[in-house]
Amino acid sequence: MGLLPNPDVHLTCQLSQCPQQETKKGIFRENHHDFWFFGVECPEDQMSLGRRDGSVQPGEEEKRREERRERREEEKRREEKRREEEKRREEKRERREEKRREEKRERKREKRREEKRKRGSRETLLSYST
Questions:
Q1: What does the alpha-carbon distance between residue 3 and residue 40 come to, in Å, rounded to a whole number?
Q2: Does residue 9 contact residue 34 with C-beta atoms inside 8 Å?
Q3: Residue 46 pLDDT > 70, yes or no?
Q4: CA–CA distance, 70 with 115 (Å, rounded to integer)
Q5: Among 12, 29, 71, 106, which residue's Cβ finds the most Cβ atoms within 10 Å?
Q6: Comparing C-alpha atoms, which of 14, 6, 64, 69 is closest to residue 39?
Q7: Virtual CA dihedral for 53, 54, 58, 61, nearest 10 degrees?
Q8: Lowest mean pLDDT: which of 2-11, 83-92, 99-108?
Q9: For residues 16 and 24, is the Cβ–Cβ distance under 8 A?
Q10: What is the CB neighbour count within 10 angstroms for residue 115?
Q11: Compositional bias (Basic residues) spans (predicted)?
């Protein structure tokens, strides 16, 4: 099973080189079904499958198109789920930060009240002594 050129098959793949196979445009890989592929299992999968005479196996292109559509939809669902999860984490983080800021403000207020109370009692004591 080597790389063989076949001028009878019409390429539709627009990739100059398939990322998963070391096959370049114009070179075809023969598989056990006697089909010729450009970039077997190419993730973009923009190729049409063809026989040696250039004909396409019935339903094969439609099947590939459907598989690509399903993969894209699944990827969109995963991406949407990831975004929602990220949004929930961000909101949770913001709530925690706001709670920390509020607690810090409350501690400062309490400290000021305590200082005023101490200052007031000191001033009262001083006024008694004079």
A1: 11
A2: no
A3: no
A4: 67
A5: 29
A6: 14
A7: 150
A8: 2-11
A9: yes
A10: 10
A11: 106-120
